Amino acid sequence: MTGTARETLLEIDDLTVRLASGAARPVLDGVALRVARGESVGLVGESGSGKSVTSRAALGLLPAGATATGTVRVAGDDVLTMSAARLRELRRREVAMVFQDPRASINPVRRIGDFVTEGLRAGGTPARAARATAEELLEAVGITDPRRALRRFPHEFSGGMLQRVMIAGALAGGPRLLLADEPTTALDVTTQAEVIAILTRLQAERGTGLLFVTHDLDLAAAVCDRIYVMYAGRIVEEQTAEGLFARPRHPYTAGLLAATPRMGSGEPPRGVPGRPVSLAENPEGCAFAARCRLAAPECAAERPALRLVDGVSVACHRAEEPIHD
Amino acid sequence: MTAVHLERRALLRRLHGGDVMQTAALIVLALIVLVAVFAPWIAPHDPNGLDLSAALGGASGDHPLGTDESGRDVLSRLIYGARTGLLGPLVVVVVSTALGAAVGVAAAWCGGWVDALLSRAMDLVFALPGLLLAIVLVAVFGPGLTAPTVAMSIAYVPYVGRLVRNVAVQEATRPYVQSYRVQGWSGWTICLRHLVPNIAPLVLAQSAMNFGYALMDLAALSFLGFGVQPPGADWGAMINNGANALLQGAAMPALAPGAAIVVAVVAFGVVGEGVADRVAKREA
Amino acid sequence: MALFLVKRLAGMVATLVATSLAVFGSLYLAPGDPATFLMKGRPVTPETLAAIRAQYHLDDSFAVQYAKWIGNVLTGDFGRSVQFRQDVGGLVASRLPTTLWLVAYAALLILVVGLAVGALAALRRGAADRIVLIGTGMANATPAFVAAIGLISLFSVKLHWFPAFGNGSGFGGRISHLTLPAIALALTFAGLLARVTRSAMLEELAREHVEVARSRGVPGAAVVRRHVLRNSLGPISTVTGTIVAGLLVSTSIVETAFGLSGVGQLLVSSVTVKDFPVVQAVSLLVVFAFVAANLLVDLLQPLIDPRVKGAAR
After folding, report:
1. Is the residue at A278 inside a domain?
2. Same domain, C214 and C162
3. What positions does the domain ABC transmembrane type-1 occupy (chain C) (predicted)?
4. Domain with A162 in it: what CATH number?
């Protein structure tokens, strides 16, 4: 794998998460994932692929009533088994998340300053120091007159500005690992680029590890060094952003790339045919086989494991063969 | 206030999510109605038959719930009490529902100053607690079932009226109503054929709730001596009457009608909630 | 905000004027001649009748009578009680402490029990929730006078823990005399508040910002306090406003049931003997309290939810 020279921050191994209600397959099935210090890692997939569940697991947040096996280590400590007090400490100081919809994620009846400093205050930071930190952070995310902004309410901000507030709030505890769950999906196109720029700049400045969850492969490639592609609760491919665009190894990745409209290519985008596998179905073989143009009989019979092909991790029986698009 | 009112309606919701409670409540209501209708045939004694020698007798074979301080059979009075107990609320609900629906639909359909005027008027009535209105009317017209029933009929209009108005305003802006209008249907036709069937179940649910609350309020007025006058058998009046016996250790003359009121109110609440739930499910 | 305040105050005054007109008007229209009633059927000479009519301004037109009455009311003069031959203002004032004690006691019970029970049901689902739902459903369906006889029969007659009648004197006596009435008064409303609290908190618990707060390492108790309870205050304050108003009306029932000489009981006894000045004064007082409580709740809304800026209702 690339980037292993640096200290590993987040190590997810064999993470399997089952929902309480009788779903036919686990939401996550044997997921393994690494994020190193200062590294930007993308996690890409369709909605329902389990990418959000994976990223939330790094905070010890599981869907209500779900059971998990495997390990989720942050700097060596297993998040899934640690004490409640240690978990709160971890959430305040080490791992923080930028959520998708700032409007829903920030309490509308409390002040901005309250939101930004909440984790710090819960950790025992004195009010004055917390406020000073918050002011610096709001300044850093490009909010004018941060002192006044601290006293204002969420509804007085636009969505883009509020997402900046959320980034400031996530950085308040000085985390080593930042999780971003579709951080720009709820925003206007014009503000998306600004928010991404702020996020990546601050991440680079602070040497924070970043797990960037998105359904947008192009965006992931622009932000990340390395990208994991998820399908139906499993990692199906992992390689560098350049490698992924140059030569996708999994037919699903190739399908995602072909589905993105591209300027100047002259070709219309093609969607991935069929529909994602629901939680109610648990196909015997490769979960993608039903939608795959290259599917062979073995694909429906046996589930492919992740294996290294030319330095790329891919879970496909036919990974050695070229994919013609 | 609408939120509170909705909450009143939402009372007992999850508890009675099961159809078991619904069925039980319906059976209870049916029993009460049957008892009220066939009171003369069911009651073991004359509800007003005095027998001072048997005053405050405990439960016996002849008097299953004992006798009150005038020696009247408590069970018989309870059975006859169901008549006034149901009649008053019935009038209140019918009148207030009819008035409320008319006012609500008119406000929603006409809009503008009519809506403003009717809504203000409903706010005003809402600001006058029903019980107080009833007490004032009793002061004017004297005690009896009439004044309290009239007062409650007025006081409950805003409950139905606001509900109907809000739902009707929502319905009226729905695309299907617009499209009928564009097709040249008359307002009345749309109103009768589409608005009313859509609103009716909600109003029904509200009315069932109101029935229970009206029963409570009217019984309270009888308890105060403003409603049914002695010697008439009425649950509220029985409690008033039995309060003295209570201190002499005879609890049944007051507790039996008290229990009857609670059971009836709960049953109406459950049924109203069931209807409301069904509406909510249909909408979802 | 200032405009909002002015608008709300104007609405409050309009409501009071309309209800005072209604109250005064309905009593004005009452069948029977008040003057004859005043003499309680005693034979009177036309001269004394005329004197009484003059004393009570019964010969003026409705508008003049109303204007005189409302003018006096504004200066605190509610007229004279026919029943007690005493100034209504002083009469009501002498009865008010008992009623206010009762209402305050009941309000305390309602707030503490209602909030605690509602929060318990919302936070501990399952068995506790079901028990609370059944209990609050029954409580809400139990009118105050039924609760009163139940409490008297159990705690006064059987157990002798609390007195069944009377006002009591001194702080301790007052508390012990008002305990059962306060419970009877509180029962229905506590059930209602618990229901509202429960559903408001459940709604807030499901919100994303609550999970976000947890994801940031905020301890559970702080999440409940700062995000769930805080955000539930809107519906809770609204229902509290209507409860406060409802309490005042229900005191007439509870005070009658427990033989407390408060304002509610005064209203009931005045209605019975057609003591109209008292009925008018108490009715106006109740409506005033109702409107004032709702105005207060409306004014609180922008503080509770900053998104509401004066556009309440």
Report:
1. no
2. yes
3. 96-297
4. 3.40.50.300
Helix ranges restricted to H, chain B: 2-10, 19-37, 39-42, 74-110, 112-127, 130-141, 146-155, 157-172, 175-182, 187-190, 196-223, 235-247, 252-283
Q: Which residue of C has its CA nearest to B273?
A: C137
pTM of the entire structure? 0.83
CB contact under 8 Å between B212 and C276, yes or no, is no
Residue of B nearest to C239 (CA): B4
Same domain? For C171 and C296 the reply is yes
Residue with tokens 């009306």: C249
pLDDT digits (tens, 9 = 90+) for C213-228: 999 989 889 999 999 9
Quote the domain boundaries for residue C236. Answer: 95-312
C162 touching chain B per CB within 8 A: no
- What torsion do the CA atoms of B261, B263, B269, B273 make, to the nearest 10 degrees? -170
Q: Is the residue at C45 inside a domain? A: yes
Q: Report if residue A286 sits inside a domain.
A: no
- A-C interface (Cβ pairs under 8 Å ≥ 3): yes
Q: Are C242 and B236 inside 8 Å of each other by CB?
A: no
Q: How many CB atoms lie within 10 A of CB B19?
A: 10
CB B134 within 8 A of CB B70: no
What is the per-residue pLDDT across A153-181, written as a single tens digit (0 to 9) for each? 999 998 889 999 999 999 998 899 999 99
Q: Looking at the predicted structure, is the pLDDT value of residue B2 above 50?
A: no
What are the structural domains of chain B? 2-48+65-283 (1.10.3720.10)
- How many cross-chain Cβ pairs, B to C, lie less than 8 Å apart? 156
How many domains does chain A divide into? 1
What integer pLDDT is reported at residue A132 of this predicted model?
92
User: Using one digit for the tens of pLDDT, what is the confidence trace for A33-91?
Assistant: 999 988 999 999 888 888 999 999 999 888 888 889 999 999 888 999 999 999 999 99
